[in-house]
Amino acid sequence: MASLRIREAKEGDCADILRLVRELAEYEKLSDQVTISEEALRADGFGENPFYHCLVAEILPAPGELQGQGIGSKIITKVAEVALDKGCSQFRLAVLDWNKRAMDLYKALGAQDLTEAEGWHSFRFEGEAMREMAGR
């Protein structure tokens, strides 16, 4: 079984964070949507007023298949701990409709599927739509 350590990300982790974002996007067949740079990650997460907080899961050693070892549950539990420590009343996860394994995990841990329960859909404004709205 793999050993797991979860810690707050440091500025020096940005290259690895970006690599993982790209790997996840490739897995989700959304590589074309990754437009952030390492410099932007650094500025947005480690500047004076960070836009995000990031945890790093260090898994040692990592032989073979990692699924089924409880790593996802441990990471989500840590996110809940950090969120409560920071005074958050909730946190949200986004998952693609085909990723049933992730949805089943989130539900098993007590998350509510807002699309199912309340009919919520997520929307995103980006690029040209933002500039057009802002008149730029």
Automatic annotation (TrEMBL):
Coiled-coil residue spans: none
Annotated keywords: Acyltransferase, Transferase
Signal sequence bounds: none
InterPro entries: Acyl_CoA_acyltransferase, Diverse_Substrate_AcTransf, GNAT_dom
Transmembrane segment boundaries: none
Record-stated family: Belongs to the acetyltransferase family.
Listed name of the protein: Spermidine/spermine N1-acetyltransferase family member 2
Gene encoding the protein: SAT2
